[in-house]
Amino acid sequence: xxxxxxxxxxxxxxxxxxxxxxxxxxxxxxxxxxxxxxxxxxxxxxxxxxxxxxxxxxxxxxxxxxxxxxxxxxxxxxxxxxxxxxxxxxxxxxxxxxxxxxxxxxxxxxxxxxxxxxxxxxxxxxxxxxxxxxxxxxxxxxxxxxxxxxxxxxxxxxxxxxxxxxxxxxxxxxxxxxxxxxxxxxxxxxxxxxxxxxxxxxxxxxxxxxxxxxxxxxxxxxxxxxxxxxxxxxxxxxxxxxxxxxxxxxxxxxxxxxxxxxxxxxxxxxxxxxxxxxxxxxxxxxxxxxxxxxxxxxxxxxxxxxxxxxxxxxxxxxxxxxxxxxxxxxxxxxxxxxxxxxxxxxxxxxxxxxxxxxxxxxxxxxxxxxxxxxxxxxxxxxxxxxxxxxxxxxxxxxxxxxxxxxxxxxxxxxxxxxxxxxxxxxxxxxxxxxxxxxxxxxxxxxxxxxxx
Length: 452
Description:
single chain; alpha/beta; Helicase, Ruva Protein, domain 3; 4 domains; 5-stranded parallel beta sheet; 3-stranded mixed beta sheet
């Protein structure tokens, strides 16, 4: 135990320099070392959201910390606290052939709460939900590939997990795999980095091409990753030719996936494309009612209606507000029965603050950070000292306020075209994926916006 604690402490020191303090506290500080097995450090997470959050959003910094570490490990595996006993028991059994080979990602299991029964359907998502259910009943047939897009927090990942849960419920022997674009890229990089081991290349090919169903979340992050695009192109062709189901999700339509090759985007759009829009008020209320029942939160209709009215565009933020008031109510041994109680619970919550953010506020904070005038960043000048701050502000608006149309953003920043906004957004996103220092810089500005 002492050895694994020492290793994890060393990795944490490096991780702390790669992620924001908030992310470090929310995710990495909650992990506990369990043991070292076959050169991999086994960590336990207290809940699935922490484990999945790290896998989805922080695989790259975790992998970098492992790669740069002087410790004698070649990867990290994350399990749940509830799985520790079972894991230790399984370690004593004869080793079986492993399906996964990634150095730090254990196979992702579908979240049990993400089912079709728990997915509230309204006019904003009924087409995507119907297509997803049809795919789960007959994968690999007419609805292939299935491409689902929508702004963050509207339920895309829920739908993908619901498909996986339903397929495996009906056909437990099918090989169904869910991953994110970033983890797909990390798998490929690991294979390339160990090119002297031909077995890894073989495992990579078999891992993806022998699947019955492949799901890739957030494909927009494949932008400018040429090797990943090349690999996915061939995997896509192999699976499609074999009539295997392919499901993709993105935060934007196919036509806005710039910096991804046309031969890929044309394939993305060759099947069924379904969008998810922000839900109407009635749907938001129904979602909150179902979540309150699921989490056993005693909350009044008045509070539910207030949350539904306050947060119009992001289901994840709505759920966060509901959980916050539920936790606050439990601490005070009472029900959440009034808006006054809700406001007290959300007084110091970022969920309460974020809804008051405007495009003007984002621009103001960005200008203060770069030391320029707001009138200049919103003007016609294209000098070098203005271009990056303007692109940064555009990027932050698209990520923090995804409900604002691209054309409106362009109009705010000097009457520019929506394609200029797309270019700015993708350029900053590219820099973030390539430069960790730049990524932290963007996160710092974003935190200033959210906390001001």
